[in-house]
Q: What sequence folds into this?
């Protein structure tokens, strides 16, 4: 009964809101995002509709990654300042684990911040490997090619540094969910071992969440995969090349890529969307890189790419732990790519324009209706000589065509798109 009441009160604490339309003279929306005093919340932000979902950060301990394929992973809750130690790589040692041996267990493990894979947390940094190079291991277990299960091998001890408390933990099995065991340290001995199984579930989120406090799954702790682009949260990083340290900032969704431009004027109407190879899937590309000490860096701009849409974003306020305020401005800049109708069946744009130093540009093509034949993109110099040609697929929907013009000299060119019986030409500058 207590667990049900706790979960009910937790759901009541979830706050969902939409960014008010505070648009400046340059078309940027001001977002007053706050994690709250002491970074007590984590906040999911969706740039497409300005929706924000704020939830208490400390109501879960472990999150289990889930999807429909054979991909496995987990994360510990950095908001709880957890260190993870590998106590053994043999589950048979469960009853003999003694926290007095902590100093011999090696350096603590953390969720990595320099990674492109959100699912690979602290446990996946564990020492378990496979003796067969054709059989994968996860850091905590080894894949069984016959049963298709991950069979757990490692015993971890979680140390909560703020309270100096301990939990013994092991993932026993993973297949369409996770079976795990845990035991709490009461100050003198381990309490009885608890075993739980959490199925992947059917709602469209990246993780399932579990609380050692309640001994149960914590529901509704993140929006659906398509409903957020950035989550503002605490995370550990190797700070100033000295030690792992918890900081707060933005972790990006696997659905987006981010390019950082520094220096660049923030409040300006003149800018160039970075080349496609400038965009990164590193989960902390934004991270805390916009922060000064109690202020923000005034020359850092972030370009966020989600599908065929681009957003330009920069920060205006860093309130620190006192308020948790992280105010920023952003606007959708896809429309600035110069998209032009090609008859009634398609439209296109080219970027960056002027082209970047590598002379690679992208044609963004929106096909509303299939033509009788495929389209073409052609590039001409100013004498009328065709210097590049490629075919565009006969399909509907948004897609892009990357073209390499590195063989061309600097100057002005014309890009011609032909689709069906219609064509359109745009000027392209190559520096």
A:
């Amino acid at each position: 009964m207590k667990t049900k009441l706790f979960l009910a009160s937790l759901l009541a604490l979830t706050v969902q809101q939409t960014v008010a339309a505070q648009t400046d003279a340059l078309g940027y929306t001001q977002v007053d995002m706050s994690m709250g005093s002491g970074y007590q919340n984590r906040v999911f932000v969706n740039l497409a509709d300005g929706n924000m979902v704020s939830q208490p950060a400390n109501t879960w301990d472990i999150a289990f990654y889930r999807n429909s394929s054979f991909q496995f992973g987990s994360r510990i809750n950095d908001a709880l300042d957890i260190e993870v130690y590998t106590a053994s790589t043999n589950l048979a040692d469960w009853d003999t684990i003694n926290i007095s041996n902590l100093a011999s267990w090696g350096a603590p493990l953390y969720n990595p911040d320099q990674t492109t894979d959100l699912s690979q947390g602290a446990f996946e940094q564990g020492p378990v490997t496979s003796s067969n190079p054709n059989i994968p291991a996860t850091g905590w277990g080894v894949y069984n090619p016959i049963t298709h299960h991950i069979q757990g091998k490692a015993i971890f001890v979680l140390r909560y540094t703020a309270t100096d408390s301990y939990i013994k933990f092991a993932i026993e099995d993973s297949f369409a969910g996770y079976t795990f065991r845990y035991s709490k340290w009461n100050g003198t001995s381990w309490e009885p071992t608890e075993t739980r199984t959490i199925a992947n579930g059917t709602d469209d989120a990246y993780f399932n969440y579990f609380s050692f406090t309640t001994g149960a799954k914590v529901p509704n702790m993140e929006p659906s995969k398509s409903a957020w682009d950035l989550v503002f949260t605490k995370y550990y990083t190797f700070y100033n090349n000295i030690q792992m340290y918890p900081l707060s900032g933005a972790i990006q969704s696997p659905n987006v890529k981010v390019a950082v431009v520094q220096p660049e004027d923030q409040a300006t109407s003149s800018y160039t969307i970075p080349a496609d190879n400038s965009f990164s899937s590193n989960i902390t590309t934004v991270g805390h890189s916009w922060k000064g000490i109690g202020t923000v860096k005034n020359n850092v701009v972030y370009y966020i790419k989600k599908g065929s849409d681009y957003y330009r974003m920069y920060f205006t306020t860093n309130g620190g732990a006192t308020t948790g305020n992280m105010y920023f401005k952003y606007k959708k800049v896809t429309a600035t790519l110069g998209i032009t109708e090609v008859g009634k069946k398609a439209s296109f744009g080219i970027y960056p324009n002027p082209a970047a130093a590598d002379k690679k540009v992208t044609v963004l093509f929106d096909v509303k209706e299939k033509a009788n034949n495929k389209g073409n993109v052609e590039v001409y110099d100013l004498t009328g000589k065709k210097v590049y040609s490629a075919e565009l697929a006969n399909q509907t929907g948004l897609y892009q065509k990357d073209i390499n013009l590195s063989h061309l000299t600097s100057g002005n060119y014309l890009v011609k798109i032909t689709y069906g019986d219609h064509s359109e030409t745009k000027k392209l500058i190559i520096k």
In short: Residues 362 and 402 are 4 Å apart (CA to CA).
